[in-house]
Structure formats: C-alpha cells, structure tokens
Amino acid sequence: MRATATGASELHTNNTPKDPLTQEQLYELAVKSFGLPPECVTETASTGKWHIFDGLHTKKILGIFPSSRHYVRVIDRNGVICLQRKGLGLSVTTKAKFREDIKTLLDETAVYDSIGKTLPGLFAYFGEKQTDLSGLASYEQIVSVLEMEFDLLSDNEKVLLLAVE
Questions:
Q1: Residue 61 structural domain
Q2: For residue 16, is it within any domain?
Q3: Three-class SS state of 106
Q4: Domain presence at residue 4
Q5: Count: domains in the chain
Q6: Type and span of the H or E element at 131
Q7: What pTM does this model have?
Q8: DSSP-based three-state secondary structure for 142
Q9: Of 29, 73, 76, 107, which has the most beta carbons under 10 Å away?
Q10: Which residues have CB under 8 Å from 39's CB, separation 6+?
C-alpha cells in the first residue's frame, strides 16, 4: 500500500482566529478570494466545518460570445481556504444514498475521449473530514474507499461530493 500527500499544509499562527467565522465573514472571504462582485458569489453547500462557495466568472470571447465558468472555494469554519479549483458538479447526499448520487455525479462530469472515460477530481466533505478521491480510477474504487470512511457515520449524515477539474 502506498500513501501520497499533495497540496500545501496549513500554516497556524497567532493570527488564526480561535472562534469560527460568521457566515458573513466567510462570504466576504470568498468574495475577496474570487475577486468577483458579491452578486456573482454564492454559498452552495455546507456541512460540519466545511463551506463550499461558487464563483461565476463570465467573459466575452472575441468581444461577442459570452462564456461562463464556475470556480469553487472550500473554506473551513476558521477561514482557511482548503481548495480552489474549477467546479464541475456538486452532490449533497447522505451516507445512506451516496452510492447512487456519486454514480450520477461521475456520469455527468466524466470526460469521454479516445483513451476512454476519465473521471474528474473528486472530494468528499463530511463532519470534520475532507477526503481526496482524485487518484482513484473507477466508481468501484471510490465507493470502496468511501464505505470505509463512512463506517462510523449514521445513515442520515450529510455528505458533500464535489467534482472539480
């Protein structure tokens, strides 16, 4: 078995707030992070310590054709931005029904090309945990890992499944 860690570790300083930020503070942080007007940023879901924000970037190609892209920020309750990527899809589900919801999410966000089916980057958020499932190659592998992760959760525990580019 091999374990691989990616990303940047969080830096804790004396400036880190000891109390969780309010919804308004988290929203202001997301707006600042996106660099967008407030009307283009929405909080799409939250569970446990996790808050997922969507930023809609719109621009015109050749000055005529509008093009929109969704970007996401996952911010924890203390204001640490834990993920910032292009968003492809989000499923708000529970432990009891995550299998069918993740299958739908993967079907809607997978890319089919000459080499076959390529799954998107996938993250699961529940309680205090963030699980990166991006390196897994199939639906069966993802379900197997999540079943182990969810072992101690109740059936109605809220789970956020985020597909990113």
A1: 23-164
A2: no
A3: helix
A4: no
A5: 1
A6: strand 129-132
A7: 0.84
A8: helix
A9: 73
A10: none
